[in-house]
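Supplementary Methods, section 5.1.

A reviewer requested that the exact input to the structure prediction be made available. We therefore reproduce it here, unchanged from the version used in the analyses.
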Amino acid sequence: MKTEYDLSTMKSRKNPYAAMLKKSVTMRLSEDVIDYFKQMADEKGVPYQSLINLYLRDCVSSHRKIDISWPTIP
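The structure derived from this sequence is encoded token-by-token as follows.
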């Protein structure tokens, strides 16, 4: 192994995984929602944030839409 390398002679290339990077976001979630995912994550042996990401990814891939209907007040 060399003690020094000349990096100026290296050819650069794009990172093939750049499109798969995750973006950090801040979300406010109810404690019961967090507890639910933490409990399920413990059962499955995965981090709870990864489990939430997997669930949301499944919603995206199946084009799941939420039906929000507010009750009308007469």
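The CA atoms of residues 57 and 63 lie 10 Å apart. These observations are discussed further in the main text.
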